[in-house]
């Protein structure tokens, strides 16, 4: 089981390139960051983890800009989107941006993709929240089509374009590994696409049953888990290890440089103790 970090980058916290260098120096496997292009002022959608929407959602740096900075400052660190809200993007543009990020990172992109939960945010991008799953499916399929064909075309209900040229193609062939966020509702998509799973977790005990269900559908599914909350202790790290997941991403709270580095040191210490 590898160890990585996920975080919300914003204008008050450590800069992406600086954090990426510190992670690579300490031997972390990857850096994942979130995406929210805006936050609606008036929200009735319940926050997916319960309670009010946390403050870090409101000031996020553009995900792909942050990851480009991280990629160009490092040589081996995995560069992950955790997650990209695909339904809110133009698929032709997003395909080019992600392929370009894979190129400048020399094939280190890990593409986490999701449907999105905040209905008001989705609606502001011109997408009916009731159809966001179908929009996501078509846009993701169109992106893969663009990545894998010199003359790409797609004809669907929500995405429709005649043959196009679009370069660069991803360094990783046939395309960067795709990880789908969400819960058990995503398992059908994961099995169909041969994708990995990128769930959020507050503890390993909540993942045992869903993982069994997923592996019954697709035995070899890659799994990267985003652990939300406090640093997992030795016992919790062992529980994650026993689940057979590929990588654990520990949440790094959004804070300035000194606080971020202290937190990384604490994560590293706990990881060393567990080994």
From TrEMBL:
<dbReference type="InterPro" id="IPR019921">
    <property type="entry name" value="Lucif-like_OxRdtase_Rv2161c"/>
</dbReference>
<dbReference type="Pfam" id="PF00296">
    <property type="entry name" value="Bac_luciferase"/>
</dbReference>
<dbReference type="InterPro" id="IPR011251">
    <property type="entry name" value="Luciferase-like_dom"/>
</dbReference>
<dbReference type="InterPro" id="IPR036661">
    <property type="entry name" value="Luciferase-like_sf"/>
</dbReference>
<dbReference type="InterPro" id="IPR051260">
    <property type="entry name" value="Diverse_substr_monoxygenases"/>
</dbReference>
<feature type="domain" description="Luciferase-like">
    <location>
        <begin position="17"/>
        <end position="219"/>
    </location>
</feature>
<protein>
    <submittedName>
        <fullName>LLM class F420-dependent oxidoreductase</fullName>
    </submittedName>
</protein>
